[in-house]
Amino acid sequence: MPQTRRKLLHTAGLLSLGLAAGCLGDAGGGGSGDEPTETTTSPDDTSTETPTDTTTEAPDDTTDMPDDTTTDDSSGTDSPDASTISLASVDSAPDIPLEPAVEVTKAEATQDHPPQVEVTLSNTSGSVVEAGEGRDIFFQHVSDETNELTFLPAGKEYPADPGCWRLTESLFVTQEYRMEQFDPDESRSKTVDLYGMPKKDGGCLPVGEYRFETTISIGEMDGSEGDKTDVQWGFSVTLE
Prior knowledge:
This protein is mainly β. It is built from one helix and ten strands; from the N terminus they run αββββββββββ. The chain starts with a helix and ends with a strand.
């Protein structure tokens, strides 16, 4: 073969190898170029936000509560306390020579004294009159018809709380019959204080109307039993 033809074949072979090498190079270097990086965008966070606590606060209790007006009434039957006395009624004078009368001398009960009345007996005859029993005719130690109250001789100390004037214990009275002598036209007065009888949980002086009554026995100084006259006389008081 001529030399010139061999050179041409040799050159063509080299060119073919070069082209092949170029193709192989392109195929292997595809990843070395600056290709844009794909950016993945996260979707918006659509998570539901926890709602604000809108629980309605309970309104204040504006209901007016009534005042505590419970009355201490342990027995359930006690009357309200009284402080003033007045005469509600007085019996007419009996048909005897000794005329009784009564008037209020201390109407108000205070810390210093209980209510007080004065009983007066007047001899309307021209003779000496003897009357008994000496304490009863002046309403000393005489109780009302309900045994709730009693009159006691004024000016003495008794077991009772000042201002309340209910006896805290029973009194012992001597059993004796006394006679009082009244000269012609003589009048005699004695005062008696009003107290409540001893009573458990009885309060002080009760409100209401109360009647007091006593027996007046009249006789002449020289008279016998047959000459004596007994009469009932009394009066009612109101406490308020």
